[in-house]
Automatic annotation (TrEMBL):
<keyword id="KW-0378">Hydrolase</keyword>
<keyword id="KW-0645">Protease</keyword>
<dbReference type="InterPro" id="IPR029058">
    <property type="entry name" value="AB_hydrolase_fold"/>
</dbReference>
<dbReference type="InterPro" id="IPR002410">
    <property type="entry name" value="Peptidase_S33"/>
</dbReference>
<dbReference type="InterPro" id="IPR051601">
    <property type="entry name" value="Serine_prot/Carboxylest_S33"/>
</dbReference>
<dbReference type="GO" id="GO:0004177">
    <property type="term" value="F:aminopeptidase activity"/>
</dbReference>
<dbReference type="Pfam" id="PF00561">
    <property type="entry name" value="Abhydrolase_1"/>
</dbReference>
<protein>
    <submittedName>
        <fullName>Proline iminopeptidase</fullName>
        <ecNumber>3.4.11.5</ecNumber>
    </submittedName>
</protein>
<keyword id="KW-0031">Aminopeptidase</keyword>
<comment type="similarity">
    <text>Belongs to the peptidase S33 family.</text>
</comment>
<feature type="domain" description="AB hydrolase-1">
    <location>
        <begin position="52"/>
        <end position="246"/>
    </location>
</feature>
<dbReference type="InterPro" id="IPR000073">
    <property type="entry name" value="AB_hydrolase_1"/>
</dbReference>
<dbReference type="GO" id="GO:0006508">
    <property type="term" value="P:proteolysis"/>
</dbReference>
Length: 431
């Protein structure tokens, strides 16, 4: 595991790019190595400061690519040198997508099973050893990044000086079905709030869905847009920045071409970009696996979001014309691997992963109950992605964790008010 480093300057900061080769599977059962990449940013005069490692939300998203220094990063650099880690399978860490994955579906599913939080923690520990030896460092994680930090506190707490989490405390032993029951309920609430603000949009969305059921409308990537896929635009309802952008998309979706009602090219282009998983296919493939805890939570996830949807009549696809229209949220469905060109080649792979019953538990409640690492976590009362109920239970289960419970933010609080939010977390840790 040799570390190679290159660097450059940006905006009063030194930027160093670290690459490290690590085992794909540290048990040795699956041979091979992969590369792990991290970008370090050091403010002028800050070379003596301790490290803060950023764990991006996801799964399957690369770390931030800042073109300027602002928000939470600007605040972090006042106290730390910041390491932006591309979690394995993403960004410049050896990527995993339809172009790079080899072998049959079974081999690909096995490969992807090594991209979970426990392996990300081990990668971070390898980087820590190379960069600072035995010295512990600070962690900051958003959403899935908080899941990784919870695994870190279970697996390698000696490597952690302090930890901060935003919108990312997972259920330690929550069955995946229960998680989705909570997120569907939260998504229904956000739908009601959205249509209360923009009541005309419910009629518009219903009209677009009915049109798609009877007419062929093609996205710029060539596939037909279905009404069920249109409904997945509701993932925007879980963020402050995306709430009203959905309204703007629905302002004028129709035009008339030779006397026939059609969707506008601009609407199809905007929707196509919002719905495509081409930039982050791993998000779709790995999403349910982040909730898998082996036998502790009932084994395989088996497309839990798809199954649990049937328990919520208001999300039914065959609801009548007088039924409320509902967008779905952070839910991945097997049929998306039949409709999205970026996911179609990974359909069988994703199905095998959803049926894996042997994915190990990621969190150790006994270790967390004896935790000695200072931890602060922001929990959002109305979070549509990470349920408040399970977050509060986990906050109670991690010894010494200091929660910040607020309704000031939606799931993207770190993006919309990162400087103030991180400052509050730091002050909470040090009070």
């Amino acid at each position: 595991m040799s570390l190679t480093t290159a660097g450059y300057r940006i905006d009063g900061h030194d930027v160093r790019e670290h690459e490290l080769e690590v085992p794909l599977d540290r048990t040795g059962a699956t041979p091979g190595t992969i590369g792990v990449f991290a970008r370090e940013i050091v403010r002028d005069g800050g070379a003596h400061r301790p490290y803060l490692v950023w764990f991006q939300g996801g799964p399957g998203n690369r770390a931030n690519r800042p073109d300027s220094i602002g928000g939470w990063l600007d605040r972090a650099l006042e106290d730390y040198r910041v390491l932006l880690l591309d979690q394995r399978g993403t960004g410049r860490s050896t990527p995993a997508n339809r172009q790079t994955l080899t072998g049959d579906a079974a081999a690909q599913a096995t490969y992807l099973s090594h991209l979970r939080a426990d392996a990300i923690v081990a990668d971070a520990e390898a980087l820590r050893t190379e960069l600072v030896g035995d010295e512990p460092w600070t962690l900051l994680g958003q959403s899935f990044g908080g899941f990784v930090i919870t695994a870190y506190l279970s697996q390698a707490p000696a490597g952690v000086r302090e930890a901060m989490i935003t919108a990312g405390l997972p259920g330690l032993r929550t069955p995946v079905e229960d998680t989705y029951r909570l997120t569907y309920a939260a998504t229904a609430r956000r739908n009601r709030e959205y249509f209360a603000r923009h009541p005309q949009d419910e009629q518009t969305a219903r009209a677009v869905a009915a049109h798609l059921d009877g007419a062929e409308e093609l996205l710029p990537t060539g596939e037909r847009l279905s009404s069920r896929r249109l409904r997945t635009l509701g993932i925007n309802l879980g963020t402050q920045t995306g709430f009203d952008s959905l309204h703007y998309s629905l302002e004028a979706p129709f035009t008339t071409v030779n006397g026939t009602r059609r969707l506008t090219e601009s609407f199809l282009d905007e929707v196509g970009r919002a719905l495509s998983f081409a930039p982050r296919p791993l998000y779709a493939v790995l999403h349910e696996s982040i909730y898998a805890q082996g036998a502790a939570t009932g084994g395989a996830t088996q497309w839990a979001a798809h199954r649990v949807r049937d328990e919520f009549a208001e999300f039914a696809l065959d609801a009548g014309p007088d039924a409320p229209f509902r967008f779905t949220g952070e839910h991945i469905y097997p049929w998306q691997f039949e409709e999205d060109p970026a996911l179609v080649p990974l359909r069988d792979t994703a199905d095998l992963l959803a049926r894996r019953a042997d994915l190990p538990a990621l969190y150790d409640p006994d270790v967390l109950a004896e935790n000695t690492v200072p931890v602060a976590a922001a929990i959002y009362h109305d979070d549509m992605f990470v349920p408040r109920q399970t977050s509060l239970a986990t906050a109670e289960a991690i010894r010494g964790l200091r929660p910040i419970i607020t309704n000031d933010y939606q799931h993207d609080g770190i993006r919309v008010d990162g400087r103030n939010l991180l400052d509050r977390l730091i002050r909470t840790l040090r009070r």
